[in-house]
Amino acid sequence: MNPITFHKPQTLRDASDLFTQLDNAAFVSGGHTLLPSMKQGFAAPDHLIDLNQIPGNAQISIDSGCLTIGAMARHVDVASSTIVKNAIPALAGLAGSIGDRQVRQRGTIGGSVANNDPAADYPSAVLGLGATVITTQREILADDFFVSLFETALRPGEIITAVRFPVPKSAGYAKFKSPAARYPQAGVFIALFELSIRVAVTGAGASGVFRLTQLEQLLAKQFDSAAAQSLEIDTKELLSDLYATQDYRANLVKIMAGRAIAHMGQASVFK
Amino acid sequence: MAIIHLQVNKQAISQDVPDQTLLVELLRDTLGLTGTHTGCDTTQCGCCVVLVDGVSVKSCTVLAAGIQGSQVTTVEGLSSGTQLHPIQEAFMEHHALQCGFCTPGMMMSALDLIQRHHQPLTPELVRSEMEGNLCRCTGYHNIVKAIVSASEKMHAANLASTAPQVSA
Amino acid sequence: MNSKFELPQVSAKPSDLIQGISLKAVGQPLKRKEDLRLITGQGRFTDDFSLPNQTWAWMVRSPYPHARILDIDKQSVLDLPGVLGVFTGADCLADGLKPIDHSPVPSTQYDVKLRGPNDTAVFVGRHVLLPTDKVRFVGEAVAMVVARTREQARLAAESVLVEYEELPWVADTELAAAPDAPRVWDDLPTNVLVDATFGNQEATAKAFQEAAHVVNMKTRINRVTGVPLEPRAALGNYDPSTQSFTLYAGSGGAVRQKRELAQVLGVDAEKVRVLSFDVGGNFGTRNRAFVEFGLVMWASKKLGVPVKFRAERTESFLSDYQGRDLITEVSLAMDAHGKFLAIKAHNLSNVGYCCVSLSPLSKGSGLISGSYDIPYAVLRSRAVYSNTMATQAFRSSGRPEVIFAIERLIDKAAHQTGMDRIELRRKNLVKPTQMPYTNPVGSTYDSGEYEINMDRALALADWGGIEERRVQAKRRGKLLGVGMANYVESSIGSPKERVDLIVHGKHIEVIIGTQPAGQGHETSFAQVTADLLGVSFEQVSITLGDTDIVTAGGGTHSGRSMRHASTVIALASIDLKAKAKKLLALHLNAPLESIDFINGKFIHSSTHTQLDWFELFQVSQSAELPAELQGGLKIRRDNEMHTPVFPNGTCVCEIEIDPQTGGIEIKNYVTVDDVGRCINPLIVHGQTHGGIAHGVGQALWEQCLIEPDSGQPLIGSLMDYAMPRFDNLPSFKAEIAEVLSPTNPFGIKAGGEGGTTPALAVIASAVEDALLPICGPVEIPMPITPVKIWTALQKAQKS
Questions:
Q1: Which residue in the set C720, C728, C787 is minimally distant from A244, CB to CB?
Q2: Does the model's pTM come out above 0.90?
Q3: Which end of chain C has fewer CB within 10 Å, C or N?
Q4: CATH entry 3.30.365.10 includes domain C322-492+644-798
Q5: Do the chains contact at B132 and A95, CB–CB below 8 Å?
Q6: Strand, helix or coil for residue C561
């Protein structure tokens, strides 16, 4: 890897300041996206600002119908948290299905959300639940947060501190894993609230995670998996790769949507 | 450059290495512990898995500087003297290795898995939880047997960690 | 000493050589000797070695599939930190380095004789270490940078400015064979380097004319790569005081590579020492020398420091020797009752940019009739160059392809005629009474009980319960399919092997020239030796891999090792016992005839004095030995065996397809494998499991794809190349059948590749069976990924 200087701030303020002062710096939390990118030459920061030393950013708590997960919470901790399992079991299941066990033991929700990989699992939950991303500077609604492939509304130096999820009546997640990379080729997160239904799809969109408003409207009329069958998905907006044509992805979106609806309260993984 | 202080296999080490040094590079190149291997460049093969503070990590994707003060356990630290660890014995008994290249990472990953569960593992759980380790020689069949067998023996002997049970 | 395998008497059988040997260790599932170092992190893989002052090499690789090299600007990097040198093809040429002579045309007595078009010699492209004229595939090394650290070498290599003139290129196998395709080698009029036809044209044509049924099929077998988990690596060192080279490099045969690389460097073979200890997987990818092996030795000489290289996984995907890539067109003629009358085949193998081994084409050619009694055949075998990485043998070189062809052809015949696919096979299997059986292209199968093994596999797989399980699966929304395939495969391999047996104070050392990468030779060879010499398994040690000690040997490939090793060890043990008897006779001043060898002890019949090997060793140390016993209690024995053996068996596989996603799950996988005598069932089962994984991997997930418009490889990492993993393979039900081969003393066939050989066919067969109700008989090109299954279902449901 290219030479770097590794910084270990003890507070978020120090971390932000460092970012402003240093030239070509990047934040690192779990490191399981950034470090592989650096090894392959896709990212070349001169400075790494380690967020792991800063205390207090990994808490999971629930209050007034909102589940708040600290940005530094590891996937494995979200998956095993009794609070998350009770409040939004599909979210716990989703976290428990990310990558492999070693990735889950290091990766963080803040890192995943900030990166906005079009095939990452978390963005579908954040968008699907209409969560709020809390940063060192402000609060950003999910609908405003995910801009495009690997692009979010975060400003340079802005650090996610937590994600706050409204607790739905129920939620479900279903995904189909790609044979090689093991990312979702389509992952559908469905959240049923008292007054609304939200559906978000990851792994399939050419611009990243997206709301499937068509399905939201169909489910508002009748909440069952048959609604997914009548979806008409515009294939032009979908990713195409070695293991999935656009038609196939569109099909996967419909099937995963149907399975998420049929198995609310959990994350279902298929391959 | 920074001085990295770690415990590696219960030995304190202090090494001055460049900040971009990956844990696997520290282990292999600096400390000469060549039991941990690199097999890929996309964090997918698991040949480099070690335990950091009892948790399995891919040492090719962890900076040494990022785990200051931690306890690292590598394959070289599994046996005590000539006494093999139950996981090593199980791998040998069930012919769970052929070329042996994936084996160190495989055993460390398996150990972590066994220690996270308070009862013996089932083949299904092993198969789903070991996704991060590749083997090209064995077809996995015997590795599953070895891990299930080791988990039975370890739980029977109550050697498993008393860490809180996790289901991830 | 004798090197030809000659039996003591004319009427003797090879198995006579082990008559009276009590088999205690042989056949037992003994735990492996090599495991202790491997499970304690004390393995000795190439990258584990370091030398003082070692430097690092990094290759500059071509971004184009085909381009003329105009200029390589060394100056652009010579001043970068740590850079010690930049080397190009021009430098290699100036120093007189030769191309690597891979001897790619198989030449044992029983290999099918491949020839160039119009019966010319096969043109083998020059495999130079670094090219001077042009680059011929994306990833070809065009220069080497050496620097103090690996990171410095990388940075410099990435900065070397190379000027290319792009040329038209061709990657696709069929397109490459066209007469007007861009030529990879200017020496040939087209890219076709092999075009040979075998068999009986007249009789075959007649059979086809008279046939009641003719079944045709054309299939493309996908290209895969080995992905041994240890990336290839090499550490070269030149010692000016002895003018000799040392190379640490894991391979499939240190002796062979020593010889080849010495030729490249232009030195005598004694000036090169190759050390290949623990090897992290081979599967064929390491059977031939890589350019980096020669380059690091040469660079070490030029720079006066050791030079080390280790491939990134991306480099492995680009430039490890790849496997398979065959187009096969086959036709089967049958009579009205389903008896096979003749087979025609036309095989086209893509060797890549340079011909490294024609083993896949050759071995496959010898087996086109599979396990079946087919009287006549015509086979046209062709090989073609293309702007892709070179291919060579890969796990069961050539046989999965041809077994795929014949077995799928029979499945197709069953659909076409309405005959049952099992009964069609049963009717045509070669019978034990026909053994040894010579097939229509001249391969003589040594032994086998094909029908018995097939029935055993069908029983183990509960063939009779399929329809019931299919109904149950349907209720769960799944399509169940069952595939089956018989296979026969050949194990030939390098015909020569050498062993040194050396008795030490407390153990017996066996020095042998095979090169395992996980097959457990240190264990299985010790089992054989222990029984032959009447010592315990613990008292035998096996030495491999250092050419200063291992002076000759054939390496490991083609399932040759156990058979060749056990035979030469058996012969050597006879010689060693004779020598030991002489020694004891001398020592006791007794007649030679009065010395017997019983249960590991040498006994003087009249006095009943008895010594074991180690006591005799002591004698050999102190005695004044006559000339013929000089050197003590040790023996060297060479052997040459050309006769191939034919492992065989049957495989049954049950899958469930999720029609909504195309997802596929293997529910049951059964094999019965005739490996001849099984020395260590633990090891043989392990080989079967691993072999199955390779075959299933190719059938369902693996592919080396080139982008058709740009010629760029689409597979650069494990993110693109789907692998067998814990969670997509089942546990297997593998049974060993031991039908002893009459060709060698222990009756060994081979167990290393039978898992792979039927796997392609059986998966395709299972998928077709699952989709049959909706799609009719269907051939989905491998790898049969979920998207392809789904697309096939969509297509069928729309029409």
A1: C787
A2: yes
A3: C
A4: yes
A5: no
A6: helix
How distant is the Cα of B168 from the closest Cα of chain A, in angstroms? Answer: 5
Question: Which positions in chain C touch B36 (Cβ < 8 Å)?
Answer: 41
Closest-CA residue of chain C to A182? C719
Query: What is the Cα C402 distance to its own chain's centre?
Result: 16
Strand partners, A19: none
pLDDT at B164 over 60: no
Domain that holds residue B55: 2-77
CATH number at residue B123: 1.10.150.120
Residue C110: phi, psi to the nearest 5? -100, 5
| pLDDT mean across residues, chain C | 94
At C629-656, the pLDDT tens digits run 877 799 999 999 888 899 999 999 999 9
The helix-helix angle for C561-588 and C521-533 (nearest 10°) equals 40
Q: Do A243 and C785 touch (CB under 8 A)?
A: yes
Are residues C689 and B140, on separate chains, in Cβ contact within 8 Å? yes
Asked whether the beta carbons of C374 and C265 are under 8 A apart, the reply is: no
CATH of the domain at B26: 3.10.20.30
Q: Does C653 touch chain B (CB under 8 A)?
A: no
Amino acid at A194: E
Average pLDDT over residues C88-96: 98
Q: Which residues in chain B touch residue A99, judged by CB atoms under 8 angstroms apart?
A: 132
In this complex, do A102 and B41 lie within 8 Å of one another by their Cβ atoms? Answer: no
- Asked if residue B67 and residue B33 are part of one domain, the reply reads yes
To test the contact with chain B by mutation, choose from A22, A100, A269, A270 the residue with the greatest count of B C-beta atoms within 10 A, namely A100
Pick the last residue of a domain from B48, B77, B106. B77
Among the partner residues C278, C314, C682, nearest to B100 by beta-carbon distance: C278
Whole-angstrom distance, CA of residue C236 vs CA of residue C309: 9
Domain boundaries, chain C: 14-30+493-640, 46-167+232-310, 322-492+644-798
Say how many CA atoms lie within 13 Å of B117 toward its Cβ. 20
**What is the number of structural domains in chain A?**
3
The answer to whether position B134 is within a domain reads: yes
**List of residues 6+ apart from C103 with CB closer than 8 A:** none
Q: What is the CATH number of domain C46-167+232-310?
A: 3.90.1170.50
Predicted confidence band of residue C7 (pLDDT cuts 50, 70, 90)? low
My answer on whether B11 and B66 are in the same domain is yes
Averaged pLDDT for residues C150-165: 97
User: B125 CB near a chain A CB, below 8 Å?
Assistant: no
Angle at A167 between CA A164 and CA A169, to 5 degrees: 160
Residue B70 lies inside a defined structural domain of this protein? yes
* Total number of domains constituting chain B: 2
* CATH class belonging to C14-30+493-640: alpha beta
pLDDT of residue B167 exceeding 50? no
User: Which CATH number goes with the domain that contains A27?
Assistant: 3.30.43.10
User: In the beta sheet, which residues pair with residue B57?
Assistant: B50
Which of these three, B21, B51, B77, is where a domain ends? B77
Question: Residue A38 belongs to what domain range?
Answer: 5-50
Note whether residue B165 is domain-resident: no
Residue C9: band (very low, low, confident or very high) from pLDDT cuts 50, 70, 90:
low
B59–chain C Cβ distance below 8 A for any pair:
no
- Statement to judge: residues A228 and A190 lie in one domain: yes
Contact C727 B127 (CB under 8 A): yes
The CA distance from C30 to C23, in Å, is 13
Domain assignment present for residue B151? The answer is yes
Which of residues A166, A181, A211 is at a domain's end?
Answer: A166
Q: DSSP string spanning A161-213? A: EEEEEEPPSEEEEEEEE-TTT-SEEEEEEEEE-SS-EEEEEESSBTTS-EE-H
